[in-house]
Amino acid sequence: MPMTQDPMKQKELTSRLMHIVGEDGVLVDPAEQDFYVNDWLGKAHGRTVAVVRPRTTGEVSAVMRLCHQTHTPVVPQGGNTGMSGGATPDMSGAQVVLSLNRMKRIHEVDPINNTLTADAGVILADIQKAARDVGRYFPLSLGAEGSCTIGGNLATNAGGTSVLRYGNTRELTLGLEVVLPDGRIWNGLRGLRKDNTGYDLKDLFIGSEGSLGIITGVVLKLFAAPAGRVTAWIGAQQLDHVVSLLSHLQSTCGPRLSAFEMMSGASLALVTQHLDAHVSPLEKVYPYYALIELADTNMTGLQDMLQTALSTAIEDGLIDDCVVAMSEAQSLSMWKLREGISLAQVKAGKAVKHDIALPISSLAIFTKEADQAVITSFPDLPIINFGHIGDGNLHYNVLLPINVSSDDYKTKTAVLNKRIHDLVAQFNGSISAEHGVGTLRRDELRRYKSSVEMDLMISIKRAIDPNQIMNPGKLL
Ligand code: FAD
Ligand code: 2HG
Ligand code: ZN
Fold it and tell me: What residues flank ligand 1, with Cβ below 6 Å?
């Protein structure tokens, strides 16, 4: 029997964990563990010996030393908002969940160096606010920002809606602190823009989904705060027109273009039907919509710039209609429609999700071929296609009925995944653009990564985590 499935040993383990983090830092009651062992999508479920909630890097280090000595598997967890099952323990009951949700200190905000240093458990929205409070801007933004943690954002290299201008979480990170699987602490909390002293270790841990160590601290890049934004909502007949509009805005508005999100007609309909007080800004319905935003440190002429660019796009037949938000409230209600799609999918059915990346120039032709492939096999299933097309990232989801049986869900998911991901591979795309691999894509990874890539990743994993205790069953 593995050590942590023996009840006596489990008791001993939990009491040693309590010794490190205090009794209130270890949850053993199943009711208290419930949040930590299930995901919000209702797709991943597990059991745990204990949920451990350290307050300091020193405590994380002591917990990891103990788990290393006892060969106890550890599942790191931030806000538990992930979409790939990466933060959920397996059903064995032998894994410990290490939650960062008591590590919430912002240590330093330096508006001269344009950096912010924080614990990994700080909620993303609190990081954004701390930057705003000193007249700076932290651009990472996603629908879960009120509950996801910066450590989880780093571990998944989260994308979101401002990648187009500022890059993924990786590009926003200057330094990291990581507790290794054996408990050693790597302090790489440096706020430097240049540092060519060997391998960039932080880049190994960013996007590693808890498989190499526990991220405990971070130094983030800050930017000049935009004075404001101008938001517009457009309707278009074809996806290739929306893609051409993106190019047109990049040429005419340059770096002021700060977001370009696309929603198919079916995605918008889902939101307006299933969420209260969500109303389309346009009277007519269109096959495609885009939400566009310009932002700058100087607002002079920004609205005119967008309006002129959109008028030209109408004259050129790229778009059919548009509304420019006249107030912050109008802009927020446009964003509410875009950010409501995830929740609307949960209310409407069981989505088979595909978080894919493609060359931007291939988005329209890919969508045409993928639509054909889905319709041929499942003519009645709605396709919910939306995403961050400014980054070539589609959420190409297919919605199954809410009462679908679990067997039917599994069979259809396997068919859809293969059809869509094979097509993604033909276009030289990625089967996980921003949500990570977790358990969701683990088996498929081998099909789409070369053996050289897999070998390199496995070698790195073995070198850093020889006892294989970090998030087993996830990613690799
Ligand atoms: P968790 O879900 O707790 O964990 C995610 C993974 O990271 C797991 O593998 C876990 O083991 C690991 N992990 C967590 N913390 C640490 C740590 N400190 N050290 C080591 N490993 C760790 N994602 C996007 O990229 N773009 C989006 O636009 C987006 N929109 C979303 C909208 C909604 C409404 C929701 C619910 C989710 C969305 N997500 C999006 C997915 C999710 O919010 C992100 O993946 C987020 O980065 C996860 O952060 P978390 O703290 O919740 O991590
Ligand atoms: C988003 O962009 C998220 O809203 C969620 O990445 C995508 O629900 C999804 O499939
Ligand atoms: Zn997304």
Answer: 40, 75-83, 86-87, 100, 120, 142-144, 148-149, 151-153, 155-156, 158-160, 209-210, 214-215, 342, 434-435, 438, 471, 474
Q: What is the pLDDT of residue 5?
A: 74
8 A C-beta contact, residue 384 and residue 266: yes
Task: Tally Cβ neighbours within 10 Å of residue 376.
Answer: 9
Q: At what angle do helices 265-274 and 341-348 cross, to 10 degrees?
A: 70
353 lines ligand 2 (CB under 6 A): yes
Residue whose C-alpha is closest to residue 174's, from 194, 199, 155: 194
Ligand 1 centre distance from Cα of residue 288 (Å): 28
Residue recorded with tokens 């996806």 = 239
- Rounded distance, CA 202 to CA 170, Å? 9
> pLDDT tens digit string along 232-265?
999 999 999 999 999 999 999 999 999 999 999 9
* Rounded CA separation 23/28 (Å): 10
Q: Interhelix angle for 239-253 vs 363-377, to 10°?
A: 160
Nearest ligand 2 atom to alpha carbon 159? 6
Q: Is 143 in the pocket of ligand 2 (CB under 6 A)?
A: yes
pLDDT confidence band for 1 (50 / 70 / 90): very low
Report which residue type is found at 433: A
Cα–Cα distances in angstroms (integers) from residue 298 to residues 57, 114, 251, in the given order: 41, 19, 19
Residue recorded with tokens 């995901």: 39
Does residue 397 line the site of ligand 2, with CB under 6 A?
Answer: yes
Residue 50 and residue 13 in contact, taking contact as beta carbons nearer than 8 Å: yes
**Sole residue written with tokens 């990786």:** 170
> 395 alpha carbon to ligand 2 midpoint, in Å?
6
Per DSSP, the residues of 38-54 read: B-TTS--B---SEEE--
Contact 386, 158 (CB under 8 A): no
Q: How far apart are CA 140 and CA 148, in angstroms?
A: 11
Which percentage of the chain shows pLDDT scores above 90? 98
Instruction: Locate the ligand 2 atom nearest the alpha carbon of residue 435 and give its number.
Output: 6
Nearest to 304 by CA among 313, 294, 314: 294
N-to-C CA span, the chain: 24
